[in-house]
């Protein structure tokens, strides 16, 4: 299987700092590269991270505040300049189409035809169904904003002992996986569920600028990795609510409620100092999240956790 990981290209909020660039997150997934919220400077951050325009197959914008989209012109023009041959799907809130158009054609350049625009609207939108499902949910922010959830279909883990007991071997195993049932050498019909257990597919969610809302909880439900803003510490919860953001503790509550495996906190306000960083993790944990917590830093590579174990097979009979 190809690499699956998250490259953090930027982790600041509205104002970049000496150590944190504006937003940018590249999720690498089996040859696909989903670039979320490319803020100003993303093109340079990609170079520093060792990835190129050819690695991008999706551009997904949560909303049209500058720290989440001002990198679009550079990324698009680099896609054109480097002659990227494959389609690049650009997903963005339909209500901000005028901003997308300005960003997409911000300056004079030799354009490319590979950008496929996918405007989204409503409370929920299914953006793609293969080779993964990509779903967008509307969040709670002063401008229309969406979170994204990527899900791999569940698979199966074959059980060698059960296959052997039924005489299913060699090419018959592949046929059983593809067709769901085969005829064994002794003439019996063997069904896939007799010789396998379900293997849960991997899931990742991106929840950027938002207040606490049901959509944030729904996006995070059962995911392996949750990339979520933690713009403020808990003592600044009033500011968070005013500006439409989350605190570290609120991000931890969302992750705990969803049974998230790895929590990636990001989008930090410039008001906090480096020595404040441990407090973000402490407040997320104090809110009830007991899993792995990552404080995002620019150019970090965050691997997906190992696959969940396949579901135990129930024995038939008494």
TrEMBL record:
The keyword Zinc applies. Zn(2+) 1 binds at residues 63, 65, 141, 209. Zn(2+) 2 binds at residues 67-68, 209, 267. Pfam families: Lactamase_B (PF00753), Lactamase_B_2 (PF12706). It is an enzyme of class 3 (hydrolase). Binds 2 Zn(2+) ions. One of its GO terms (molecular function) is 3'-tRNA processing endoribonuclease activity. Zinc phosphodiesterase, which displays some tRNA 3'-processing endonuclease activity. Probably involved in tRNA maturation, by removing a 3'-trailer from precursor tRNA. Homodimer. Belongs to the RNase Z family. This is Ribonuclease Z. It comes from Actinomadura rubrobrunea.
